[in-house]
């Protein structure tokens, strides 16, 4: 029934294993578990991990830094695995402690553990078998044997006789009146509540509006508001991004009239002309003073986490009260509610069973664990090195293709232009490709940027199939020797099926090197809904067996959020993809790498 059980150190050293499968398992599920769950701090948040044909469960001893993993076929339901893992972990720890009192000796003679394991397994399998037999013996009565069925039938007969209703309608009535009927009705509401969560956005509507007002005051074009979740872009009620009426003229403008690129550049970031100045992606931006970054300053949440931990091993009861406080702290920083809760649960799980060598405060212990977890989540397991990747594509004689996707008004075309500037200032010759064939004025807006940056623009106007235009654009860039193609796509809400299908088609047909999701740092839960929705649609509507999903994130308007950097954490945690750049203003040079230390300090600052 089991395929593999193994014991290893958190450092990776394997101490013992037993396999029931001749040869290797398909696709290395243990490796997948380590990378996608253990290293990403999700061990406390989920009970079971499914990968390929397998399910994986695990038990951890934090004191000895030991992990026990069981792998079995995904189709199986093995009720005894949790207990098996705990018993094996405890037994292994017991032996390790016996052999090496400090618990740091990896030279345990592992062969000796197999017989101990076999007897635990045999005992639990026998117990599970007996439970199954007992269950079969106490099989619940069929509904037709129950009193409820008898009453219902009786009721049916009565209503037929007294009220003279048809049997069909009386059955419907009795279902609605019966407890089963009301439960069935209550169920969708309960599910809905669970899905939407009760936490709500970390920023209140007023705060978001205030941030947006700040943005508008900072020079952003007025009237560009992002649609609320669930809005249909095509519905007349939606405000969305308005067609550009740059002259304040109410009459629709002709295409020629719409080309404002030679007049004033109200759509372009403030540094209108390509200046050749190199962008320093690591230049400091809005960093916190060192004092705020230090041990927590004794104020706020951290001050309330008192209590000494000495030789005592931490138990759930010690840590449980902290979970809520930590969650609240993260939510104030705009971390999505469910993600904050999963991260805090992971931090607590990682501390269970640990003890301090010397005396320290609970505050320091918890803070340091959270800091490590946040740093680990925000540090990408793989980086997108755009310059190296573009150079590699060039060496292959083809353009490097980046596709910018996201909802309306988040800053897609501004970000595309910043990336174009960055690439150009590093010696590339990017071409902008206008594939927002949906929103009036989008092509002209991109032309404004192209002119300001002195870069070519590939466009075929409006209403045409965007994926075909992208294909033509890439082909044209190759002919003309442009080494990077930056595809601008129409902004769309993640639940707008026709537009999401069109995006999936564009991505599938063109297979870009990088699908860059552009999201605003201003929003909390909403950013996560967006990125999940985009990934879901790219996968579901793709004609490919191996659909392309989002490869990286560009987080805009970072300059407007002060220390509320939670969207960065939520997006990386949700996608497992890196934040390739953050946008820190409205000029072409306002683009940076994400500073992980700065982010972690902001999240921890009370
Ligand atoms: P799109 O509809 O997604 O293409 O959005 P736009 O590129 O037109 O940008 C919408 C607004 O956001 C414009 O006013 C931009 O100047 C502004 N914007 C974009 N990125 C940033 C950023 O990083 N910081 C600030 N403060 N504003 C930004």
TrEMBL record:
GO CC annotation: signal recognition particle receptor complex
Biased composition (Low complexity): 166-189
InterPro entries named among the record's database cross-references: AAA+_ATPase, Longin-like_dom_sf, P-loop_NTPase, Sig_recog_particle_rcpt_asu_N, Signal_recog_particl_SRP54_hlx, SRP/SRP_N, SRP54_GTPase_dom, SRP54_N_sf
Location (main, coarse): endoplasmic reticulum
Chain intervals for the UniProt region annotation (Disordered): 145-201, 213-275
Keyword tags: Endoplasmic reticulum, GTP-binding, Membrane, Nucleotide-binding, Receptor
SUPFAM superfamilies given in the database record: Domain of the SRP/SRP receptor G-proteins, P-loop containing nucleoside triphosphate hydrolases, SNARE-like
Subcellular location: Endoplasmic reticulum membrane
GO MF annotation terms: GTP binding; GTPase activity; signal recognition particle binding
Residue spans of biased composition, Basic and acidic residues class: 228-253
GO biological process entries: intracellular protein transport; SRP-dependent cotranslational protein targeting to membrane
Every SRP54-type proteins GTP-binding domain range: 578-591
Mode of membrane association: Peripheral membrane protein
Pfam families noted in UniProt: SRP-alpha_N, SRP54, SRP54_N
Family, per entry: Belongs to the GTP-binding SRP family.
Protein name as catalogued: Signal recognition particle receptor subunit alpha
Native species: Chrysochromulina tobinii
């Amino acid at each position: 029934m089991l395929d593999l059980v193994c014991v290893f150190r958190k450092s990776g050293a394997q101490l013992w294993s037993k396999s029931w499968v001749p040869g290797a398992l398909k696709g290395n599920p243990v490796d997948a578990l380590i990378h996608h769950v253990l290293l990403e701090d999700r061990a406390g948040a989920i009970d079971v991990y499914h990968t390929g044909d397998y399910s994986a469960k695990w038990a951890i001893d934090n004191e000895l830094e030991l992990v026990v993993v069981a792998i079995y076929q995904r189709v199986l339901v093995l009720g005894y695995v949790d207990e098996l893992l705990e018993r094996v972990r405890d037994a292994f720890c017991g032996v390790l402690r016996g052999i090496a009192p400090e618990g740091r000796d990896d030279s345990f003679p592992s062969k000796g553990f197999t017989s101990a394991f076999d007897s635990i397994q045999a005992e639990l399998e026998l117990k599970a078998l007996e439970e199954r037999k007992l269950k079969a013996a106490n099989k619940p009565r069929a509904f037709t044997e129950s009193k409820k069925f008898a009453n219902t039938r009786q009721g049916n007969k009565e209503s037929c006789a007294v009220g003279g209703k048809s049997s069909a309608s009386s059955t419907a009535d009795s279902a609605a009146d019966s407890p089963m009927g009301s439960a069935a009705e209550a169920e969708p509401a309960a599910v809905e509540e669970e899905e939407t969560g009760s936490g709500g956005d970390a920023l209140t509507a007023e705060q978001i509006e205030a941030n947006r007002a700040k943005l508008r005051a900072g020079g952003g074009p007025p009237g560009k508001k992002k649609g609320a979740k669930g809005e249909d872009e095509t519905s007349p009620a939606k405000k969305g991004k308005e067609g550009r009426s740059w002259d304040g003229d109410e009459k629709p403008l002709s295409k020629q009239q719409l080309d404002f690129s030679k007049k004033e550049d109200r759509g372009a970031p403030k540094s209108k002309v390509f200046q050749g100045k190199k962008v320093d992606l690591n230049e400091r931006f809005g960093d916190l003073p060192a004092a705020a970054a230090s041990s927590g300053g004794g104020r706020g949440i951290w001050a309330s986490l008192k209590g000494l931990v000495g030789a005592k091993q931490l138990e759930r009861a010690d840590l449980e009260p902290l979970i809520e406080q930590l969650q609240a702290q993260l939510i104030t920083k705009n971390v999505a509610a469910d993600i904050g809760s999963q991260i805090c649960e992971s931090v607590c799980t990682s501390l269970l069973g640990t003890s301090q060598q010397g005396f320290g405060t609970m505050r320091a212990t918890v803070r340091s664990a959270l800091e490590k977890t946040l740093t680990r989540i925000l540090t990408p397991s793989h980086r997108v090195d755009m310059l190296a990747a573009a150079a590699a594509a060039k060496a292959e004689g083809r353009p490097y293709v980046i596709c910018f996707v996201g909802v309306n008004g988040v800053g897609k075309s501004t970000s595309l232009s910043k990336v174009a500037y960055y690439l150009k200032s590093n010696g590339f010759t990017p071409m902008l490709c206008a594939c927002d064939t949906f929103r009036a004025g989008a092509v002209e807006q991109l032309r404004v940027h192209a002119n300001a940056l002195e870069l070519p623009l590939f466009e075929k106007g409006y209403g045409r199939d965007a994926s075909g235009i992208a294909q033509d654009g890439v082909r044209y860039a190759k002919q003309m020797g442009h080494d990077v193609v930056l595809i601008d796509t129409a902004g769309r809400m993640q639940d707008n099926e026709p537009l999401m299908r069109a995006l999936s088609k564009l991505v599938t047909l063109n297979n870009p090197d990088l699908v860059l999701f552009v999201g605003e740092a201003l929003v909390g839960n909403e950013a996560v809904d967006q990125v999940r929705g985009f990934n879901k649609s790219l996968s579901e509507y793709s004609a490919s067996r191996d659909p392309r999903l989002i490869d990286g994130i560009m987080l805009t308007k970072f300059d407007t959020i002060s220390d509320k950097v939670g969207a960065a954490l939520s997006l990386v945690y949700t996608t497992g993809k890196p934040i390739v750049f953050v946008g820190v203003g409205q000029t072409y040079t306002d683009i940076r790498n994400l500073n992980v230390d700065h982010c972690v300090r902001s999240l921890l600052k009370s």
